Amino acid sequence: RADRQHDAVLAAIRNVAARLAEEKDYLTELDSAIGDADHGTNMNRGFEAVLENIETKQDDDVADIVKDVGMTLISEVGGAAGPLYGGSMLHASEQLEDGLTRESTVAFGEAYLEKLRDRGGASLGDKTMVDAVTPAVHTYKKSIEEDDLPPQEALAKAVDAARRGVEFTVPIRANKGRASYLGWRSVGHRDPGATSTLFMLEALLETAEH
Ligand code: ADP
Ligand code: MG
Ligand code: MG
Fold first, then answer.
1. How much distance in Å is there from the Cα of 81 to the middle of ligand 1?
2. Which of 109, 114, 111, 122 is nearest to 159 (CA)?
3. What's the CA-to-centroid distance between 67 and ligand 3, angstroms?
4. Which ligand is nearest to the CA of 42?
5. Helices and strands: H and E segment counts in the chain
6. CA triplet 63, 27, 180: central angle to 5 degrees?
7. Could you read off the pLDDT of 74-110 as tens digits, one per residue?
8. What DSSP string describes 15-51?
């Protein structure tokens, strides 16, 4: 089981990297409307470094691999998103020390959200990645703990919730990050970080489905 989980995590990371490479221009376009037009290049640079690093991590366990992804994102992505994505992943990786289970993946999501909110200080409705992560984590947890769904179905529901969260960022005003400098002019634009979060979750789901 450990080997299968190990391979699944590496496959997931490769799929996330591929998706972000594909969406690089789109994410940067979103960031050009309400930021400084670098979110796609930031994320892509980070995941290119992650891809190089995981080649040397083939023997590590799941928690160590995810921890290493977090550290690489912190050092390579830069901007607001790097420490938020990387720091949250690094912190949450501890929950995976006994591998991927229903319980550990819920705990990973909760720890990720907790660190993200802690570091960035953003709340739901501030038009940030928190608006995608919060509904995704809550939906995943409920689907596992209350509805007793298989993890893949729970993840599918979480992706749908994240997608609604991204759409929710369009009509609202930014209160955190660079976009907040625009005040009301940030209304009507999709948040780049919420959108990259959705793409990453979609890539995880795609990995789980294949
Ligand atoms: P920068 O704004 O430094 O250029 P990026 O463009 O890479 O960084 O990332 C911007 C994204 O970071 C935003 O779209 C938003 O989702 C997210 N973000 C910015 N500030 C915060 C914050 N305080 N809390 C949560 N997310 C944030
Ligand atoms: Mg930016
Ligand atoms: Mg920037």
1. 5
2. 109
3. 24
4. 1
5. 9, 0
6. 95
7. 999 999 999 999 999 999 999 999 999 999 999 999 9
8. HHHHHHHHTHHHHHHHHHHHS-S-HHHHHHHHHHHHH
Chain-centre distance for alpha carbon 83:
12
Domains (ranges, CATH) in the chain?
Answer: 2-209 (1.25.40.340)
Helix axes 39-54 and 2-22, enclosed angle (nearest 10): 150
Give 71-103 as a DSSP string: HHHHHHT-TTHHHHHHHHHHHHHGGGTT---HH
Sign of CA dihedral 159, 160, 162, 167: positive
Interface pTM (ipTM) of the complex?
Answer: 0.99
DSSP letter for 180, please.
G
